Amino acid sequence: WLTEALLAAREHLGLQGSEWQASPPTVNRKGKFISILSRNERPEWIVKIPLNPECLSGMENAHRILGKLSGRLADDDLLASLLPGDLSRLEFEGVPLFLETLCRGRPWSTHRDNQPRIFDTNLPALFARMLDLDVAELDLPTPALDTTGKVTCLINLLQAHAPELTGVMSTAGDRLTTASQGRPLRLRKGDMTLSNIFLEGTRVSGLIDWDEAEVSATPLAAYADFIFSWLWQREGMQRSVSLAVLVDGDLDRMPRTLSVRETLAELNHTADDLATAALASWIDHAYHELKHPVFRYRADRVRALLTGPCGSLAKLWR
After folding, report:
1. Which is the most buried residue in 52, 68, 72, 218, by most CB within 10 A?
2. DSSP secondary structure string for all residues of the chain
3. CA-based Rg of the chain, rounded to a whole angstrom?
4. What is the pTM of this model?
5. Measuring CA to CA, which residue among 90, 101, 132, 49 is closest to residue 207?
6. Stretch 281-310: mean pLDDT, rounded?
7. What CA–CA distance (Å, rounded) separates 261 from 246?
8. Are strands 95-101 and 87-92 parallel, antiparallel or unpaired?
9. pLDDT at 138 over 80
10. Which residues contact 252 (CB under 8 A, 6 or more apart)?
11. How many Å apart are CA 126 and CA 267, to the nearest integer?
12. 14 has pLDDT over 80
């Protein structure tokens, strides 16, 4: 069935000839088949096939948002140049297939040596552009579940693992809701991690995985996503530790290569704004990961994403 589905994708895109090959589909941990269509061994298209309703909802959300952005942004817009160049969707025997072109460069996570300071890349300018987007003009879809709904889901999960920490999660949600009141809605690309940002040299050349993108009152959470990813992958810092550092506003503990102070100044935001963004990033990431039908029953994932960070906040707010 997968072989026929990938043949249908090739025909839909008009990719004929023996020079085109499809990689064997692999299962992504979030619940989707992924295959790469290459021409003469050069990757050009990615095919995504959802395996569960949550994954399908995320792909449809990404397809809508990317379609809106691609149709409204000017060709010379910094963000437009980083989006998938072409999007397509087709049904094969009742199953949707999502197709998009691959971006240039390679994932930031694969760049290990001679790391540039963040402020020497175009990442601050990219975040500034995303914070400046007018969502009303772009007519972007509103999120299916707000922060209160996500916090409620996580509190229910905590009841089974660490009921004594439910109050901490409730406080985190209240602080985030209060800090977000009156703020304008902006685009937030969810899951803004090193694996989803592509580089060519020191320039960001592409952004992938828009399944968790949304309209948000805390769009700076995308920047917090990036910091969490950097601290985990580059510095070996646990999420619970990095969350406490960011919420406490202790920027002196941040690596100089992250250029946190300089980037916040460029974005016209403060350490307090980053603290709010860190809460939003943590809650969103924990919610999206732990609604996975396997991860929610794995004690190590629950500890790393939920009970550990809650414990760190409990000590910080004691």
Report:
1. 218
2. -HHHHHHHHHHHHT--STTEEEPPPEEETTTEEEEEEEETTEEEEEEEEE-SHHHHHHHHHHHHHHHHHHHHS-TT-TTGGGS-S-EEEEEETTEEEEEEEPPSSEEGGG--SSPPPGGGSSHHHHHHHHHH--HHHHTPPPPSS-HHHHHHHHHHHHHHH-GGGHHHHHHHHHHHHHHHTTPPPEEE-S---GGGEEEETTEEEEE---TT-EEES-TTHHHHHHHHHHHHHTT---HHHHHHHHHHT-GGGS-GGG-HHHHHHHTT--HHHHHHHHHHHHHHHHHHHHTSTTGGG-HHHHIIIIIHHHHHHHHHT-
3. 20
4. 0.91
5. 101
6. 90
7. 12
8. antiparallel
9. no
10. none
11. 10
12. yes
Q: Look at 97 and 115; give whichever has higher pLDDT.
A: 97
In the chain, what percentage of residues exceed pLDDT 70? 98
DSSP lists the bridge partners of residue 186 as 216
Tokens of 158: 């905590």
Rounded Cα gap, residues 228 and 219, in angstroms: 15
pLDDT at 143: 67
Q: Which two tokens stand for residue 290?
A: 């732990």
By residue count, the chain amounts to: 318
- pLDDT band for position 294 (50/70/90)? confident
Query: Distance between CA atoms of 125 and 195, rounded to whole angstroms?
Result: 19
Q: Give the span between the Cα atoms of 15 and 20, in whole angstroms.
A: 7
Evaluate if residue 96 carries a pLDDT over 90. Answer: yes
Q: Which pLDDT does position 275 carry in this prediction?
A: 96
Amino acid at 303: R
CA angle 31, 83, 97 (to 5 degrees): 35
